[in-house]
Structure formats: C-alpha cells, structure tokens
Amino acid sequence: MSEIHRAGVIGGGTMGQGIAAFLAQSGIEVLLCERNAELAEAAQKKISDMFDYEISRWALTAGDKRALMKKIVFTSEIQHLAPFPIVIEAVPEESALKVTIFKELAIVCKPQTIFVTNTSTLSITEMSNHIPHKERYIGVHFMNPVTKTRLVELIRGLHTSEDTYQTVRDFLAGLGKTTIEVYESPGYVTTRVVLPMINEAMQVVMEGVANPDDVDTAMRLGYNMEVGPLALADRMGLDELLKWMEHLFRELGDLKYRPCPILRQKVRAGHLGVKTGKGFFEYK
Predict the structure, then answer these.
(1) Cis peptide bond prior to 212, omega within 30° of 0
(2) Structural element, H or E, at residue 61
(3) Are 15 and 142 in contact (CB under 8 A)?
(4) Residues near 225 by Cβ (< 8 Å), separated by ≥ 6?
C-alpha cells in the first residue's frame, strides 16, 4: 500500500480526540466520525480546548492551532469514511459495539481499507471473525495521552496479514511512534503488567495503610515514576479500568485482576477520574 496521508477516526471520546490530534500534528489529514452531530461538535470543541491548553504552555501558537484544526474534519456520517485507506476505531471497550461498527465500515469502505481497533484488552481474532477482509484487521493500543506517549502496542490477530502488519507499523513509525509487536493475549503487555500495580495501590488505600496522595508520592519518588498509580488510574478513566480488570479476571481467572471494591464504589458514584473532575483526586 502506498504511503498513507489521510486517516479516518471513528469515536470522538478521549482516545478518539487524542488520536485525531496526534495524527493532525503529524501532518495527516483526519476525518473524525461520531454518532451524531452534537457529539461531533463536542469532540471538535474538546480538541480545540486541547490545543488552547498547549498554547497556554507555549507549546503551540495560535497559528499552529488554526492549521491543525483545518486538518481535522468532523462528521456524523459514516459513509464519509469510504475513501480513506485506514480507519481507526476508538469507541468504548465493548466487543459487540466494535464489531457492529466494523460491519458498517466494511459495507461503505473499499475492500483494501485497513481497519484498526484501538483496544487494550479485547481479542482481535474474535472480533475479526465477524467482518469480511479479516486479514486487514489489526489492533493498535494507543497509550494516553496519545500526543505525548511514544509507545504503541501493535497486536496481530490470527488472521492479520503480514502486509497489513507492516503497513500499519511503517505508518506509525513514520509518525514517530515506537511500536512493539504483540501476539494476541488478554491485556497484551502494558495493560496486563500495570493493572495489578494499580489494583494493589487501591487496596492499600482501602485498607487505610496510606492516603492516595502518599501512595502516589511513594511510588513516584521511590521508583522514579513520572506519575503515581492512582493518578494514572484517574487519567485512564476508572470506568474503563474496571472494564479491563473484569475482562482479564474472566479471561485469566487470576485473583490479581479481581477489581478492588473501592474501584467499584467510585465508578458507581460517577467519580471516574479526570474526565469527570473527580476520582482518587480532584481536578479543575
């Protein structure tokens, strides 16, 4: 496949916004598709706000922002994704929802279109079994924040072709991402390794051993971490974190993935982390 200069993104939540912003900053023309016009407009507003924050910290100029916003077109019509050589899905971590979307995309897109699912835990093979051209289906786990984190996990399903893998790897490498090759397994590498640490940090808080701030301070300064495990959980979204842990607990049956009760409490209370302004910490 020739060099990719345009990409579609479907899903305008936190990850979709980050992916679209990252692609635009890398010189790629982006079409971001949401379920309806209101959500598309909301995604546009949030990406604009994201660039305004970068301006406030002198990382961008107002001119940079104008140029970047011109590179991202927002729509609620899935058929507008038809001419794009690659479409990246970034909807919530629900297998049935992702499959439904890719079935729709398979109808409107060209047979050679590469379909990328942004997932941190789900089976690429299982989802690809329900769509045509399964050899062109691949998983990419973008790390949040997408615009600043260099690593991506590139996940092969059993049906993913070598050409699809190499095309997506070269595309991401050309945008400055460092890829690691992952063969399908629940949680892949990063999610599988980090979740037990986050879960144990929550357990320490629940048992009253230390408060959230002291737990994060201990891990940041004691182990030279850029961000503590509880602040990291807030960034990820506690509702998403709960879904990942429940999935890994079902798939692997290991008690280290059984969600800490305090995580369930916060999700039930709607304290989901940064995106709601409150999780283990409070945010403006």
Answers:
(1) no
(2) none
(3) yes
(4) 219
DSSP 255: G
pLDDT above 60 (res 2): no
Q: How far apart are CA 38 and CA 4, in angstroms?
A: 29
- What is the arrangement of strands in the sheet containing 6-10, beginning at the earlier edge strand? 72-75, 29-33, 6-10, 86-89, 114-117, 137-142, 151-156, 178-183
Q: Give the pLDDT confidence of 183-202 residue by residue, as tens digits.
A: 888 889 999 999 999 999 99
Q: Give tens-digit pLDDT for 208-249.
A: 999 999 999 999 999 999 999 999 999 999 999 999 999 999
DSSP state of 176: T
List the domain boundaries for the chain: 6-183, 192-276
Average pLDDT, the chain: 95
φ/ψ of 208, rounded to 5, equals 80, 15
Residue with tokens 């600043």: 148
Hey, what amino acid is at 207? Answer: E
CATH code: domain 192-276 is 1.10.1040.10
pTM over 0.85: yes
* 3-class secondary structure, 209: coil
Q: Please give the helix or strand (H or E) that residue 69 lies within, else none.
A: helix 62-70
Write out the two tokens for 212: 């959230």
> Can you name the CATH fold of 6-183?
Rossmann fold (3.40.50)
